[in-house]
Predict the 3D structure of the following.
Amino acid sequence: MKKVFAFILCLVISSFAIPAHAEVNFSSSLESKPTIAVLIGGQGAIRSNEKAIKIIYDKLNEKFPNKAYNLVTDSKLSQDVLIFTEDEEVTDISQIKKGQLAKFGKERNFDYIICLVLGMGYGRAGIDFWSAKYNIDVDMQAKVVDVSTGQYIYRQNIMGHGTSSAALGMPSSVNAFAKATQKCMEQFVKDITISPIKPTPTEDK
């Protein structure tokens, strides 16, 4: 009888020694986060606009936080992209097709590819009663591909308008472009949804 009581006592003590969330943590630790690669394209003047590029990364990091997603940025992929587009005979990243983006992602074990290509519209300078102004439109080509299926989950061209003004001196075209890019990114992150659950790879047929 004493042995039975001691055995039951050990079981009770053991149940209190194991945290209630231990099983949840164990199972969740087996699930990895989806990996999203981000490719950014555009003319040289666009790529050199540090304010606009920072806005893009900031908006993406807000939308896809590190606790739920692995976000691989364009700066880490630049060489791979250059080599891949050369091999695929793509001279302009805006012309890259969804099948090529899926191939790029599959070769590198990415789950999703976000490809954003910025096009600069016509800039307009003017003067009103109070200040000089500079207006510009940005046309952002947005593509998001699910690598496991090879299909788009998002494909739009998004327009954004930006204005810079100055009471003294000249308004900044850099600031106007950055503001237009921010408008595009606000629309993009509002539209796009990517599950934090890593997709199951599909076998090639």
Observations:
- The chain has seven helices and six strands.
- The helical segments are 2-17, 22-29, 44-47, 50-63, 74-87, 98-107, 173-191.
- The CA atoms of residues 99 and 189 lie 23 Å apart.
